[in-house]
Write a structure and sequence with these properties.
The protein has seven helices and seven strands, in the order αβααβααββββαβα. The chain is an alpha/beta fold and about 180 residues long. The longest helix is centred in the C-terminal third of the chain and has 17 residues. The N and C termini lie far apart (about 50 Å).
Length: about 180
């Protein structure tokens, strides 16, 4: 039995592989699910090393090269505290990305606290500051697909959201250092 590809994913992956100067990813969910994430989470819960998939390995090679070429690859995750076990896993999973040169940042939100100003509660990718891809997820965090958005107003709003998120976030390393101490 073969599974159908998720809507928009092939086109998004092509754009992520061929961007010219910048990628930005906003992550807002507190839990994501899917086959590789589930296996990696099980390893984390068993206090085993988180496996690095071939996809992540390829991503890190690409990020390392593009950053070396002067491109920006950035990600901000809005994290509600106290964190869940899953979020601890998610945060630990960023280590290879950071090692490859991806600028991963975290916005901390206390439970019941205000959501960060001007940051939507919608995951997206912004490619070269002019292509917007909105991510779709099921209630359990399973990825449903990616939808390209061509409305110029929505793309400008995503650029503003990116700027707001980056301004309110701290580096992954700083966040993790504080979380450990």
């Amino acid at each position: 039995m073969t599974s159908e590809p998720l809507p928009g994913v092939a086109s998004l992956l092509e754009r992520l592989a061929s961007f010219r100067y910048s990628l930005f990813r906003l992550e807002t969910l507190q839990a994501y699910s899917g086959s590789s994430a589930d296996e990696a989470f099980a390893a984390y819960r068993a206090d085993r090393p988180i496996p690095v998939t071939s996809e992540l390995r390829e991503w890190c090679v690409r990020v390392r090269q593009r950053v070396r070429d002067g491109c920006a690859v950035q990600r901000v995750h809005v994290v509600t505290e106290p964190t869940t076990e899953y979020m601890g896993f998610e945060l630990a999973s960023y280590a290879p990305n950071v090692d490859a040169g991806e600028d991963v940042r975290i916005i901390r939100v206390e439970e019941g606290g205000a959501w960060p100003a001007d940051v939507p509660r919608q995951d997206f990718w912004l490619v070269d500051a002019h292509e917007l891809w909105v991510m779709g997820y099921a209630e359990d965090g399973a990825w449903l697909g990616a939808e390209p958005v061509s409305d110029p107003g929505e793309i400008v709003a995503a650029c503003h959201a990116r700027d707001a998120a980056l301004a309110q976030a701290r580096s992954w390393a700083s966040y993790m250092q504080e979380a450990v101490t």
